[in-house]
Design brief:
alpha/beta, Rossmann fold, 15 helices, about 45% helix, about 15% strand, disordered N terminus
Length: about 350
């Protein structure tokens, strides 16, 4: 008895397309790939023959085997994707990455590190890797990627051997934000930081927590604030969201004496701190100045134009994507460093 699958017509082949177009199989293959000396008229004949035979193109799996490459570049994020996509900075950065990869003909594969999947992560079928906001907890998969000869690009990470870095001046930028508050006359300043470790719990910023942390961006921004306010206290938020900022902001505002200004390590956290201030009956910026970091557009900000350190998120992503492509093509490229600029809004003012 014949099955339904056996009754279906055979899948057309590249050889059949070539025969119908009157060209060799190798010429037909080049016509599909867009590589090699194939005239437009020949390519048009091949594509017309393919359409007539309902041929979708060479099997990408077979092409990958022949090339020894998958045509995929992985982007590794330590946050769960549901958390990562709540942050406009990550979305803008991924836009930049995907734009560059698409131009070069690469696909993007999103990978997450949850702390217990290092072996799976290191075995991902990718030609190159871009690591976003990753701490040194990823030493094991980085070593495995290097052993496989896979080029690695890291966005905002501690220096690692064999890794191309795309950096942001997190420390200097935060110091600029702190100096803005200092110049306005603020002396009682507090921090609301990004997470210091993977558990994403809210708690006080302690020397022990800092010493145990391996999260590059958070630590660099803390150091920048301390360059201006050496003894600045703070609260570590559970993540980078308005809700996390609200919880951390409530804790910050319980301090006695209450701070007159807060440096939040993301714009989402800053808006959460503003919500906490409103909840406490305070007016921003008359009773509390708030400064953020990122320079993103946030829904629900209302009449607030956040004072923030605006960073070039899309450009940073483009640079990382371009670096991964160049490493695959040439084996080397130059690292890049970006700067964030102070953008003064209506959430900072002199203390009353």
């Amino acid at each position: 008895m014949r099955t339904e699958a056996s009754q279906s017509p055979e899948r057309p082949t590249l050889a059949a397309v070539a025969a119908l177009a009157g060209v060799s199989a190798s010429t037909a293959s080049l016509a599909f790939s867009g590589a090699g000396p194939v005239s437009e008229s020949t390519r048009a004949k091949v594509l017309a023959a393919a359409e007539q035979l309902n041929y979708a193109g060479p099997d990408p799996r077979a092409q990958s085997l022949r090339r020894g490459r998958s045509g995929i570049i992985g982007v590794v994020m330590e946050d769960r994707l549901s958390d990562a996509f709540r942050d406009p900075v990550n979305i803008a950065m991924l836009d930049g990455v995907s734009e560059e990869l698409g131009l070069a003909g690469y696909s993007l594969l999103l990978l997450t590190d949850t702390g217990d999947n290092h072996a799976t992560l290191a075995a991902a079928p990718v030609d190159g890797v871009i690591m976003v906001g990753c701490s040194r907890e990823l030493d094991a998969p980085v070593t495995a990627f290097r052993q496989r000869g896979i080029p690695i690009v890291a966005i905002e990470a501690d220096p690692m051997d064999g890794v191309l870095h795309i950096d942001l001046d997190n420390r200097d930028a935060t110091a600029s934000a702190a100096r803005h508050l200092h110049d306005l006359g603020h002396r009682r300043v507090a921090l609301v930081t990004l997470p210091l470790e993977g558990t994403h719990t809210t708690g006080p910023l302690t020397a022990q927590a800092e010493a145990a942390s391996r999260v590059h961006t958070t630590l660099e921004r803390i150091r920048g604030a301390r360059d201006v306010f050496p003894d600045v206290p703070g609260v570590v938020a559970g993540g980078s969201s308005v809700e996390d900022g609200l919880v951390a902001g409530r804790s910050v505002l319980e301090a006695e004496p209450r701070p007159t200004a807060v440096i939040a390590q993301s714009d989402l956290l800053a808006l959460g701190v503003i919500r906490a201030a409103e909840e406490a009956g305070l007016t921003v910026p008359r009773d509390l100045s708030v400064i953020g970091f990122d320079g993103v557009r946030i829904e629900g900000a209302g009449d607030y134009e956040l004072t923030t350190m605006a960073q070039p998120s899309v450009d940073k992503g483009r640079a990382a994507g371009r670096a991964a492509v160049e490493l695959l093509a040439h084996g080397e490229t130059e690292p890049q460093a970006f700067t964030a600029a102070l953008r003064v809004g209506n959430t900072t003012a002199p203390p009353q």
